[in-house]
Structure formats: structure tokens, C-alpha cells
Amino acid sequence: MRKRKLLSARQSLLTFALAALAVTSVASAGAQTRPGAGGPRRPEPATVVVPQEQRGPVTVARESEMECAGFIEHKSVSNRFEIVGAEQEQEQRTFAEGDYVYLNGGSQQGVREGQEFAVVRPRGRFKTRFSRKRGTLGMYTQELGRLRVVETKQNVSVALVTRSCDQILFGDLLREVAPRPAPVVRAEQPTLDRFAEPTGKQQGRIVLARDGREVVSKDQIVFIDLGAEDNVRPGDYLTVYRRLGAGKITNFKDKEVTPGGSGGFESWTFRGGKFSNKAQRVEDPDDGHYRDTVTTPEIMSRRPEMPRKIVGELVIISIEARTATAVITRVAQEIHTGDFVEVQ
Question: Which pTM was predicted?
Fold first, then answer.
């Protein structure tokens, strides 16, 4: 009996303590939400201020495109220095960013520590049937990367490859790094007009693409047969187009892919209709010769002048005497070598 009374008393004390705790919690919450001078307030949410990112002008090409584009120069520049060795030449014969290579010039030849060179590889005189210009357009030269001289000896220098666009080999030539700033994107970028009329300005063609590509797209490098002699400049925008109807998807000449007959296409039993469902129209509906249908070449031969097919846009990033290097900035579809270009 005594144990039951003791247990009951403990339960009552526990119930009282829980009730008191609940009242205190409610009062505290009310105090936090209740406005009043000097009274506790609900804490304000933290505000995070993110500084606005500082961005420079937007350029038409990235640094990698500007340093690795290549060029077709009409008159080759003599090169004094070339890569003749490397620190790890026993283990490898191709070199890239982070490798140390040796140059055939040192302090005796005027090479200085910290001097930077562009690595180039002439590939040969370039001729193409796409250009109306006679003779060669110049020496096609790849740009393979950049290196910096870290130590000079009397007749040899050690250089670190700081950028590689492709594998670097023994015999690759060096040139002084010339400034080549990327053109800035124009402030007002109009929508690519796929049916724009010709401007009447300089016209040329895409004669080559970097790495020998024949189908190219946005941000890729191409070479055009317009240069300093044609009064074009870095930063010029050009429309890329091809003539409508150039190239055929079939070799049927006067015939079409689908038979053009007007008989023999119905079943013997149900007679669904004697005409071919995909054939072109008859030449003369009033003539009565329903088997004579028109052909696509016939229609194309008598139509008026049609709009040209605009496939993209490019911007010149550097020029030579007879050619220019450009980057494709916008496309409506794939671009081919041989496509025409016109200054906007």
C-alpha cells in the first residue's frame, strides 16, 4: 500500500514538471514573437551579398583558338631557331605542355631567359580549286604551341612548353610571339538572317579548315581566300553561304527517285487507283497524256533567281597577304570547305 502511494506521488510530480516546462516554452515563444521595446525579437534572416563578377569584353574566339589557329602566308618568314632535343628524348619523341625541350640557340645567338616563342610547322604551298586566285595562296603553316626559355647556355637553350595545340616534334620551328588580340563581339548582335540579300562587298571562299576538316561548325577555325590585298581586316564579319541547288543527292539526271507513271499502281482486285502516289504532276492536264510528268531539273531550269542558302557566319581573326584566318561564330547548319563568304 505504501509503495503504491509513493509511486502515485512520483507520477504526479512528473506530470507537474512537464506541464511547467510546456508553459515556459509557450511563454518564451510568445516573447520572441511579441514586439516591444527592449523585448526579444525574432532574428532577421541572414543576407548574403555576392559581389558582381567583373567580366571583360566578350571576344569572338578563345585564347586557345587565337594561339593555335595557323595561317597561310604568301611569303615565308625565315626561322633561325628550331627544336633539336629534349630532356626526355630517350623515352619520347613527341612533346607537349610541361615538357622541357632544347633549342639550337643560346646566349651567343641572342636568346634570353624568359623569352617566349611560338612553335610552328610549315606544311607546304597551298593550292585549291575553290579559289579564283591564280597560283598558290601561300605556305600553310600550323601553330603547335608556345614555349618559354628557362635557361640559356652558350649555343643551346632550355625551354618549357607552356601551351601545346598538337604534338610537338623535333625540327619544329620557332618564331617571336607577335600580339594577336581577339576581336570583340559587336555590341548589337543581329539575328542570323537566313534569307539576307547580298551586300555587294568582297566575296571569297573557305579554302581550308584546321586539321584538314571538311565539315566544320561553331568555334572552329577556317581559312578564306580574302586577305590584305582584298582590304579585309581582323574583326570583319562575313556571311557564309552556298548557291541554292548546288550539289545533288541523286544521280538520276532527268528522272526522279519515285516512278512517275500514271498506270499499273492499283491492285487487280480492289482497284485502289492507277496513279503513283508520289509522282509529280502531269505536264499538261488538258493534253490527255497522263504518263508525261514534269521533272525537277525542268522546273529548276525555268524558275527565277532564287535566294542563296545562308549557312553561317564567321569573323576574321588574322590576315595575311592573300588569305585570312577566321573563326566560325554562328551556324544554321554544317559548313563545308568550298562554301562562299561575303563581307557583311
Answer: 0.76
